[in-house]
């Protein structure tokens, strides 16, 4: 499997605080079946001032520690990027790293308040040739009020990444409901761990794949954690990826499973 969202780099944000924790997280990821992990620290102006060159150096250093410890995990670069007025310029300059130097990058909206010009921002990013992958929409406090807007963003070219743990209840009943609904209606492009530690938000992806299977089937669940993430690392054209892999957002929702969503509304 390929995990494209993790806070594995030690001491750079609210993820792994030190190398010992990072190595323990890496071992746990390998045991879970993860072969490739993108290190995606926060870029949050005023709080986490991470930049592309420093992230790349940190990934190289951590990979050397993994190799020395005989941990069979391959690392690549990225960032969990917050909205900023100069985001396109940052991507073009390399100050904001994309995933494995591809056109795809992680875009994290504010958790508690819907940003006023999210649609305009995403449109500008798509026009500039980038594919924003909106991280953990199911965990946003404002998803109920702006659900239709998020679906429209996905319909017009943005991608959605759901956290694997949301599907197992790690983030509460609300996040699980929205994750399942997004899956059932066909708007989830990839699953990722958003790992921050060993015990708190661990790097476990297989549980999300298994939890997704009743909603999308085993074949599509594998696409969410393996085939499609590898396509991102290869910088495959998004239209090719979605057409060749039969991205479920193109297909009408399954009427046979829709009734199940009602079971989770009041959990």
Automatic annotation (TrEMBL):
Sorted UniProt keywords: Hydrolase
Pfam families on file: CpsB_CapC
InterPro entries: Caps_polysacc_synth_CpsB/CapC, Pol/histidinol_Pase-like
Swiss-Prot/TrEMBL catalytic activity: O-phospho-L-tyrosyl-[protein] + H2O = L-tyrosyl-[protein] + phosphate
Main EC class the enzyme belongs to: hydrolase
Key word Transferase present: no
Catalytic activity, EC: 3.1.3.48
GO molecular function terms listed in the Swiss-Prot or TrEMBL record: manganese ion binding; protein tyrosine phosphatase activity
Domain of life per record: Bacteria
Family: Belongs to the metallo-dependent hydrolases superfamily. CpsB/CapC family.
Name of the protein: protein-tyrosine-phosphatase
């Amino acid at each position: 499997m390929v995990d494209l969202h993790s806070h594995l780099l030690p001491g750079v944000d609210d993820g792994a605080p030190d190398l010992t924790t990072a190595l323990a997280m890496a071992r746990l990821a390998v045991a879970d079946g993860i072969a490739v992990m993108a290190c995606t620290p926060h870029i949050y102006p005023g709080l986490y001032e991470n930049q592309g060159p420093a992230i790349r150096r940190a990934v190289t250093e951590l990979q050397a520690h993994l190799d020395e410890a005989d941990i069979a995990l391959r690392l690549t670069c990225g960032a969990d990027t917050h909205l900023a007025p100069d985001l396109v310029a940052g991507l073009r300059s390399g100050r904001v790293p994309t995933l494995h130097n591809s056109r795809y990058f992680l875009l994290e909206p504010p958790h508690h308040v819907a940003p006023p010009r999210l649609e305009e921002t995403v449109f500008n990013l798509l026009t500039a040739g980038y594919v924003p992958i909106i991280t953990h929409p199911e965990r946003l406090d404002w998803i109920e009020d702006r659900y239709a807007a998020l679906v429209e963003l996905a319909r017009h070219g943005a991608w959605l990444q759901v956290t694997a743990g949301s599907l197992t209840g790690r983030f509460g009943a609300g996040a699980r409901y929205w994750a399942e609904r997004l899956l059932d209606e066909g708007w989830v492009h990839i699953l990722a761990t958003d790992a921050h530690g060993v015990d708190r938000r661990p790097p476990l992806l297989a549980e999300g794949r298994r939890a997704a299977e009743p909603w999308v089937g085993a074949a599509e669940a594998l696409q969410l954690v393996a085939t499609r993430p590898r396509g991102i690392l290869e910088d495959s054209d998004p239209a090719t990826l979605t057409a060749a892999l039969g991205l479920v957002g193109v297909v009408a929702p399954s009427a046979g499973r829709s009734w199940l969503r009602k079971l989770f509304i009041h959990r």
